[in-house]
Design a protein that fits this description.
With about 425 residues, the chain is mostly helical. It has 19 helices and no strands. The chain is globular. It is found in: Endoplasmic reticulum membrane.
Length: about 425
């Protein structure tokens, strides 16, 4: 393909994303106020619980079969490597630039999670439609490309909502830090109410505090009783820990650090359902295809899924209004994120995929190899904006990062696509 043709192919989806971002920004302006704080919150919940699961599950059910999922085993490994390598580079970046702690999760997540689905759903079919495409017949290329990108999108969604979600949650969960400080608060026991506790403290914590101090008469007596209790506990000989006790302690410590509930998000559940529908032949025949008796369910999921990308992009654009007024993203931090996503990761990814191809893990399918390579050079995943909106932390900074990374993608993604396409052709 000519460089100019490829440039236009890669530029169009990025420009579409930027234009929708501008629309979201305009809708958030106070004079219009269609996407204000409340509206963004509700729209974000619709994306999280409805649109994104419908897109992921529906695409998988349509395109993935038992045969294809076995032959493409290296793709989950490849995407996992992009997350691991990107996280390492992102962690080094926040240390070098001395990024504020509450933004560590956002920066690491932006370096780790790439847009392995929504952007490729536009780029790959466009590349296949070119007359001189190196990937063969147009129809075959488009069908195979849709299946590969759908699997990439589903796997990426699992990693984002289990790995990146927990990283941003860990650094942005301010309530957890407040609860930790609660043990140092001096509680007034002369009344029946517990002061200085905010609404985000759990009911269990409140009950434990009430049961501990409901009989005390004044702060001095409470303090002396706690001191005597601590001395008594120190005098009790420690019991020998069993292996089961140690395992239980480690699991409890792990559950405190990682939000295990988010391993089964709506998107993850939809991925499992989509895989089961696609892999199990009797169910597939019932729901997938022009003559399937239950095809209306697949059609409904596809219709809902089409709203995912526009809705997510509008939210990012609306959040950008705050970022234009004030943002914690410095110049050097932004340059660092761009360098990680468009320089370091593509170079490392090139070596990873070539090594995998050399030992026979990948095969000789040029389109498959191209998608594996391009996964290292895409901008950050739009779902990061959804996560920051859920936690209400780093929303404006996330929008600034998205604006610059997607703006630079018009050049960087085009150049890397040109190089990778010539490499596999």
């Amino acid at each position: 393909m000519e460089f100019l043709d490829l440039f236009v192919v890669s530029l169009n989806p990025v420009l579409k994303t930027l234009l929708i971002t501008v629309v979201g920004l305009l809708l958030a302006i106070p004079r219009i106020d269609i996407l204000g704080d409340v509206a963004r919150h509700h729209l974000n919940n619709v994306v999280y619980y409805v649109f994104n699961p419908a897109l992921t599950g529906g695409s998988l059910a349509d395109t993935v079969t038992a045969t294809s999922i076995v032959s493409l085993w290296f793709m989950p490994v490849n995407i996992l490597l992009t997350f691991i390598l990107g996280s390492g580079l992102g962690w080094a970046l926040v240390k070098i630039t001395r990024t504020p702690e509450d933004l560590h999760g956002l920066v690491v997540g932006s370096c780790a999670a790439g847009n392995h689905g929504h952007l490729l759903l536009i780029i790959i079919p466009a590349v296949c439609e070119e007359d001189n495409s190196p990937f063969g017949d147009k129809l075959t290329c488009s069908a195979n490309g849709q299946g590969l990108v759908s699997l990439s999108m589903a796997i990426n969604a699992i990693y984002i909502w289990t790995y990146v979600y927990n990283i941003i949650w860990k650094y942005g969960n301010l309530s957890g830090k407040d609860i930790a400080k609660a043990s140092t608060i001096s509680i007034d026991c002369s009344g029946r109410t517990l002061d200085m506790f905010r609404e985000n403290y759990t009911e269990a914590l409140l009950q434990s505090r009430q049961s501990s101090f409901n009989d005390c008469e004044d702060p001095d007596d409470e303090y002396s009783e706690v001191q005597e209790h601590n001395i008594a506990v120190e005098d009790v000989p420690e019991k020998k820990e069993t292996l089961l006790t140690k395992i239980k302690a480690h699991l409890e410590a792990l559950s405190d650090k990682i939000n295990l509930k988010m391993w089964f998000t709506p998107t993850t559940n939809a991925t499992i359902v989509g895989l089961l529908i696609g892999v199990i032949s009797p169910i597939r025949k019932l729901m997938i295809g022009d003559h399937a008796p239950l095809r209306v369910f697949d059609g409904s999921a596809s219709l809902l899924g089409q709203a995912t990308v526009p809705a997510m992009t509008l939210i990012v654009g609306a959040n950008l209004l705050k970022g234009m007024k004030k943002s914690g993203v410095g110049v050097w931090l932004m340059i660092g994120i761009l360098a990680v996503r468009y320089v370091a990761l593509p170079i490392v990814g090139f070596g990873v995929v070539k090594a995998a191809q050399h030992v026979g893990f990948v095969g000789s399918d040029s389109l498959y190899v191209f998608i594996l390579l391009i996964q290292y050079s895409v901008p950050p995943a739009m779902a990061i904006g959804t996560i920051t909106q859920l936690f209400e932390v780093g929303e404006s900074e996330c929008s600034v990062i998205m604006l610059w990374t997607y703006g630079m993608a018009a050049i960087a993604l085009t150049l890397w696509s040109t190089f990778f396409m010539r490499l596999v052709s």
